[in-house]
Each structure stands twice: as structure tokens, then as C-alpha cells.
Design a protein that fits this description.
280 residues
Length: 280
Amino acid sequence: MAAKYPADELSKFMGDSKQASTDRRRDIWLWFYLLAKGAVLNPTLCGGNSMRDELARRLKWNHFSANNIKKDQDTQLVNESNLKWITNNKRQLQWLEPHIVNFTNYLNQPDLTDLSKRELLIARVDVLDVSLERKCSELLHLKNEWNKWTEEDGIYDWFKDKKEGEQRLACARDWIEKQPIEWRGFQKASNLSTLEDLIIFFDHKCGNWFERKAAISEIRKRWNKKNFDAKNKHKRQINVMLTTDAIGQLDQLCRESNSSRAKVIEELIRGHKQTAKQPL
């Protein structure tokens, strides 16, 4: 039945309600659905203002049945509540992509520049010709895996320091740059300009929380050594042979003054210099 609102050609063909005529997810699903049925569509129009017109033309040209399409829609599109946990968060979408590609075995289609990453991933799930039960089960599994993956994100709080956060990120980039190319790949550390970029990098390179924690631990060690060297740039380490008795006396002086061996030795040297300067 034709709608009473100002309807476009796609709405007329599908017999859409006013609400259905603004259902972008349905339209994107319909695009991939027609592709799976062998229709030829202009990829540059997917997601754009002319997408609905292109869909209407192909539906009429290929003599599709609106009733059959609606039946397939009911068996392929999971309820929106199963997708709410998927956001437009860049990190989440990059983590999800290989998992959804693996589940759907649906490769990228080129030139779909008007689709967001989220829309494209959901479309892959929507058009997959498996039961709704299996889709819901897989989506719930991925949701639980994502929550587990991010529940230990506190390890990145060290980079959020207001005073030293940027310098710590720079330290992480230096550390990554010095890692074997077999591990870091051809990723340029200089491109990791934000903490989000760094986290996404570790999501990709580290298979579990223990590997991420180990990497952060190495970066922190590098940071501490860098700071230690900066604070002690005028100092050098030397090895001195002392008798056991002298070592015992040195440690006694350390306990009495609550100082380190190095500090006590420096004070003894300064005291000796001052004594040497005094006239006999």
C-alpha cells in the first residue's frame, strides 16, 4: 500500500512506512542483499544521498519481489538491542573488524566511502545468511570478549599523567621504534601521536593482557632509566676494592647518617679536601 507521506521510489516499491523510509541500516542491508543476489550497483552511491534511488532502480530492473525481500529481512536482521554495545569508538571498531570478518567471511568492498566503519561491520553481520540465533550468539560472544579485553585498561593510566603524559608517550614511541621489525611491522612509531593510537597498536600486536603488561613494563623501565641518567649526568659509576673492615665502617656511617654509600663517600672526599687545604 502506498504511503500517505511524500514517498520516494524506494518507499513506493517496498511499501514502506514513514519510519521504515528513514531506516538507514535497512537500506544498507538491502544494498548488500542485492549484491549477494547478483545485482550490479554503483559502489560510489552506497551510503550517499543517491543510494535509495539506486536501490529503487535496481529493484525494478531486476524484478525483485518486495514481499520476498521483507521476509528475508525478518530472518537476517537482529534486533537493534544486540548491536547497541557497538559504538563509533575507533579502538573498538578496529578490534572488532578482524573478528567480524572471520565470522562472516565477507571481504571489503572498495569505494564505500560514505559508510562509517560501524555501518560496514554491522552490514556484514546483517547480510550473512545464517540463523538469527547464531548471529545473536556470536554478537554476545564478541561483546563479552571485548569487555574482557578492556577490563585491565588501567595499565595505560601511567600515560595519562598531566605533567609527563606526552613525554611518556614519546618514550613509548622510542621503545617501539627500537623493537624488531618482525614484531612491530612497518608501523611508524611517529604516527602514534595519541594514547588511543598507542593502545590500538598494542591491541593489534599483543595477543593478551600479559603481553600488553610486559610491553608497558619495558617502556616504564626505559623511562626510569632515562630519568635516572638525566639526574645523574655528571656522575659516573666506578668500582673500588675495599677491605671488609672498611666496608663495615662505610655501612655503619650510612646507617648513622641515613645516607647511601655514594653520598657518604662523596662527603668523606669533600671533608678530606677541606682538611688538606688547612695549613699545618
